[in-house]
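Course assignment 3, question 2. Fill in each field.
Student: A.L.
Task: Predict the tertiary structure for the chain below.
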Amino acid sequence: MGVERTTRHVTRRGGRTHRRLLAIAFTATTAVALAACSGGQGSTDAGGKDEGQAPVPVAKQVQLKQEPGDGSKLINPTQPIKLSVQNGSLADVALNSSSGAKVKGEPDAQNRTWTTTEPLGYGKTYTWSGNMVSSDGRQSPVKGSFSTIDPTSTVSGHINTGDDQTYGIAMPIKIDFGQNLIPQSKRADVEKALKVETSNNTEGSWAWLDGSSVHWRPKGYWEPGTTVKVSAKLYGLDMGNGKFGSDDVSSAFKIGSSQIVKGDTDTHRMQVFKDGKMIEDYPASYGLDSVLWRNTRSGTHVVMSKHSTYLMNNPRGGYEDLPVHWAVRISNNGEFIHALPESTWAQGSTNVSHGCVNLSNTRAKQYYDFAQIGDPVEITGSNAKLGSADGDFYDWAIPWDQWQKKSAVGSGG
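Answer field:
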């Protein structure tokens, strides 16, 4: 800049001086250029310092990313939680809850990400610790925290089937949420969290028969030998009104042989079929025909439980804690197939019971030993029809097209 300013100043005073200063400027520029060229050849100064030594690379700044971000609130405990860095690596990473528990997690092969391998808890604050390491080995601490949603209460789901059990061909699957009513607006979300897998791609659908339970059944009876797995991913699921699922539940079971009871209140017979062949034809007495509430309901019942002795209570019928033997429950409205020696005289000829199917002691024991939970019991002949007032399980009394409409997400749900 000094040369330029001098040149412009002298130019106004005459051409000779102008030429002399230009020559001085040219010589100086040439010297700088030569020095630059010499430095490129690796020459040293008088002190022996290498003017051409490559500069030490400066480490890029490590960038940290937290998912969710620092200070986040109302995080669902099932969502992925991850810590990651660019331009560096992670060391000694830990995620600790406000209760003092350390969350399980794993780094990737390059130690650039760390991801949780288990769900978090409700209503807790989680804090990160550890270090970020730059490419030149410098460390800086990892800091940050977030908190999870805190439900007003949690909802448990209970599956009616047990692991490694065998059931009859009419067995429905039921997930019961107890006293918790699932709002209409949340039923589709709940249903999408449920899954039924079968060994033979059995066609079936979920149906909401009330607000606190959802059922799944096949279009027709199960094929014998089918293996079934049902799972409900409920933990972390918003089930409405501030309530969230308490845990995931599952069940794996098998369908046994085809065993069907066909009962006719008009003929007073109860026939038992196995694999399509009739193996027994019992005389029976059904509910008293002349009193509707005492009729045995027409429709497809399901064997629900078995009791060697059961105490019957029917205040309207005038008895309490009446013991009966070899009782097989077929609905929740008080209908059983059981022994009643006192009505042997009527069995095969007239109906006198309060709704149950009466057999002799010997025949009742024989059927009791044969029956399996989930077997269908098809009753025909009476004017009373099995329906929603009779409780579980009236699933097969609902035609398939109507059953599908009870799904919150459409057919096949």
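Instructor remarks: The chain is about 15% helix and 35% strand. The chain has three domains: 63-147, 153-256+401-405, 259-382.
Grade: pending
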